[in-house]
Amino acid sequence: AGARAPRRQTPRRRAAAQESGRPRNLNSRSPDELAADLAAMTCLHELSTRLHESSELEPLLEEVLNATVALQKSDFGTLQLYRCVSGQLEIVAQRGFDPEKLKRYRYIDRTAATSCARALRLARRVIIEDVERDRKRAALRGTAAELGFRAQTSTPLFSRGGKLLGMMTTHFRQPHRPSERELRFTDLYARQAAEAIERQHAEEALRTSEGQFRRYFELGLIGMALTSLTKGIIEVNDELCRILGYTREELLQKTWAEMTHPDDLAADVAQFERVMAGQSDGYSLEKRWVRKDGEIIHSVMSARCERRADGSIDYLIGLVLDITELKKAEAELRRSEAYLAQAERLSHTGSWALNLATAELFWSEEHFRIVGLDSAAGAPGYPLALKVIHPDDRLFVVEALERAMREKSEFETQCRVVRPDGAVRFIRSLAQPVFNRAGEVSEYVGTIIDITEARQAEEKIAESEKRFRLLAETLPQHVWSSDRNGSVDYLNQRWLDYTGMTWEEARGNGGHAIVHPDDRPALEALWRQANAEKKSFESEVRLRKKSGEYRRFVLRGAPFLSDLGEMLEWHGTNTDVEDRRRAKEELENAQQELARVTQITAMGEMAAAIAHEINQPLGAIVNNTNYCLGLLGHPEAEKKKRAALRDIVADANRASAIIQRIRGLTNGSRHPITTLNFPDLLEEVINLCQRSLTEHQIKVTTAVAKNLPRLRADRVQIQQVLFNLVTNSIGAMSQTEEGVLSIRVARGKLERNPTILITVTDNGIGFAPEVAEKMFDAFYTTKKHGMGMGLRISRSIAEKYGGYLTARRNEGEGATFSFLLPADESA
Length: 827
Prior knowledge:
By secondary structure, this protein is α+β, with helices and mostly antiparallel strands. The protein contains 26 helices and 28 strands. It is elongated.
């Protein structure tokens, strides 16, 4: 077809087109631009074609990345997948980078200083034109220098529902910003990558549900439908289409109510409402349907729901067995009680009967459908029926039937049948002998089951098991499975390599010997409880290596249940956490040591205040002693001397208590947990800081609410937090002419539990909004000689008690620190 003439643009449209960076029409673009667009569209078409032809994800992602790198003429490129569980981006394809250098950047979380991490946080494209000149990207310069780039463009990959799937990033050795045309095509390539990722996610979800879905489809001769509460009928099988007379597309547009016979609708709705109310998970009943052609269909209908973790219904599976022909044939079946009993015992599938005396053969409608013959022609005779069986299977089927007749036993066989159109189906046939009064077999009554899909499913299961084994052998964890009694029946190679045991040594209960003796009782108790409740379990245990060394592992187990909820076996993993635990312990020890160093450092600032506080009781002791000396020789002053001596003892005890607290702060000793008296606590802290408060002429106001809930804690630790907050506020108000420090203690709530909230407010210089959280980082300080550990340790103390410590700027001057602690709920 000829090219359509470009539509004339109004000035407003022309301005909009120019503002968006898009060419107004083809005539306004250069041949090079048109050629570049043509090449990009051709590449996009080829990617789209391969997306629908290939099931391999990584090659497709590599092609998308290569096309994007070529489009933007970038020097390097990476494509990352977003892992929902860890919240990280993982590199799965790269171009141009040194693989060894890129290893440490394989996983990126949202806190990293890279363009892809920023795009992850913002959920939109991020472009860094020059990392050397961008002041906000100073933290990225080290990475850029190491990997050899100066510019980056990160484009998120989203699903059609807006869910983040991954990130595609191009890197340039020189400062660079992609053009609008390049970004438009980059978005198209990103859409292709997202389609591939989303398709793989859908396939994984489908494989996950395959086990639930398979048992219904394997019935073969029963109509089946999958229904959603919000979307209606979402899937049906061919048998249900045959039963109700609609095509699949027509059924997906229908509702169950409009196809149900009006007289049976109320009973069906009543059962469905019980499922909706959570009183049951399914039901079965006989009901009638109105076919598309108006015919009434009798059926046995069963429905069962699958629920989510919160108990809500995810979807419903319905099974419909057409018993119309059975209803019509009931009168004929009553002629023989034996025939009816056998028919009821057998499954409701294709059925047949062979009269041995007359060679008369009966086939049900389903039997005709399975073998592909028209039931209108009537059942074929025995010799003609044998021709339906595959020639290679015919002889052993005849021999099996003749042997059953001789032995007067059950008949069972599996064979192939050939339909008139040449299609080959696998069937399984079961039959029971019917005896006459003389004890002779008069006929055989049986069923025929199409197992073609079942055989294919078995092959898929075998393939799936093969893939599982391969996956289990490549995982870094130990993978195991056991029966419900704990006898191990599978261990991957990593488990065997770690323990140095052979499979023969480990199978059964031999693998339990590697558990540390001290950990076995708790693990066995947890196992028994999980086994009884049929629930997953998790425990940290020590496992012995072949060298004799013990390492810590997190052992996780999940039950595998049958469709009836019966425990079948356990599957689990062992994850090595030894290095992680050691690192955590070393970090905690380092933090405790830093806290002690900080406390000792703070002693220098507290020395003057402490000396002042000690001088008070010592001065009182001296005054009272002199007073007692003046009373010597006056017998009538005995009462006054006793009162003065009691004051001396009280002041000496007060000085001793102050010295004991100072010694406890410097030697790291533990203090008892006591019920805190906040008025006394605030008075002590203010007295410790009184010299600085007086020096800077700072006014202090305190308020303690009445009827506070009881709080039990280490008095010295809470005193240390308040001392840090007060001294920080004094420093912030050191240049303020009229400093005002306000300390408030009030009730609070945390997740509906009672708490005590302490706020320290000043009118000092405050702080910038962007450092509100940095202040609590280790070694971050704005003081000239500060260590940057006071607020870090204070927050750690708050979190230790299950509370928190936060900071905010005041609307006017200064800042407010909020210190919240959970109260004793039993009070």
